[in-house]
Amino acid sequence: MIDFELPEQIVAAQQKMRALAQNHMRPIAREYDEREHEKPWDFINLMWHETKKEVAEQLAALEQTDEQRAEARKKSAAQAGGQPMVLGAILREESSWGDAGISLCRPGTGLGGAAINAVATPEQKRRFFGRFTEGSPKWGAMAITEANAGSDTAAITASAVRDGDSWVLNGEKIFVTSGKMAAQESDGWVVVWATIDKSAGRAGIKSFVVEKGTPGMTVTKLEHKLGIRASDTATIVFEDCRIPLDNILGSPEVQKRDTTKGFKGVMATFDATRPGVAASAIGIGRAALEFVKEKLAEKGVAVRYGISPYQMTAVEKEVHGMEANLKAARLLTWRACWMLDRRERNSLEASMAKAKAGLAVTHICQKAVELMGPLGYSREYLLEKWMRDCKINDIFEGTGQINMLIVARNILGFGRDKLK
Fold first, then answer.
1. Catalytic site residue 239?
2. pTM to 2 decimals?
3. Do 218 and 275 belong to one domain?
4. What is the count of structural domains for the chain?
5. What is the pLDDT of residues 326-385, one digit of tens each?
């Protein structure tokens, strides 16, 4: 029997996050949309306590034996109803229902932390994560995108050259989420992708940790964005930026026939993070859909269920379609997370969830604005903001088109050379 009921542990955590979103995020959503690049410090300080606790638990696991670590995983899984990654997606949905931009302001290791978890040594994890267990709020970030290397990460031109006991980085990275907070405003760090051997192609691309205050790393621009405006998105320039030799993640060896521990190792982080982006999209879409149904109810317009489509009004058909798209995206997202909880490879499912959620939420928010007319277009309500916020979920951490390509390649068994 298939059971879609959530375990009581997940329901309790979901309700707690929903209260946080409703009481501490939704009320300030408009304020920090209009005050772009200012930070909601009350929210940040509130979440910093949870961040420190989570990172401390990760570090404690490094000191455990294999048996202790397995037992700790069982205990943690039990606390999450046996599905910690599913729980994470549900919490991300609730958080983005509160406000997607403010949700991204949360201090923590971020996407850069996912890369460190994927390929760093235990010593590197202790060193880079250790600072996130004390002091004031801190951020980690990942710098991948370049002006001429967006979805095609193999085209990265930022370089790292070994010079004695250091690496010297040069290049420019754009669209770095929390880049200013990580590189300039807190005691954080940025994980930078750069090539150490251009002739080796993707195999020559490695990731490096550049710590805050490192000479040669400069935040040169903050983007003025369509949506998620509470979150800073930075351009960072690296000019003869010298970092310690052991700040490279993984092996410095270039093996042209095996990129498992290099480029592919870091790319694997997206299998874990793309379902989170999908969950964020679902949260925004749910907010828009709930608004529509609430306003329809206020006007006495009922949305009926259990009747033939031929008996439905045009508005009812639209709402049913929006609900179906949202639920399909949610189930795909939960499936990708469920596979992670079972330690199964989920590259196909993560991209399916990300692609579907990005398309679904864009359609839902656009349709919601259309159905509400002046109410949807007015800045008196948040609906127009959700329409602006939602599109990023179809762009960052792999555009919808790229994820469609990944899905097609996985299903058809084609490589990059056969399907571009």
1. no
2. 0.92
3. no
4. 3
5. 999 999 999 999 999 998 999 999 999 999 999 999 999 999 999 999 999 999 999 999
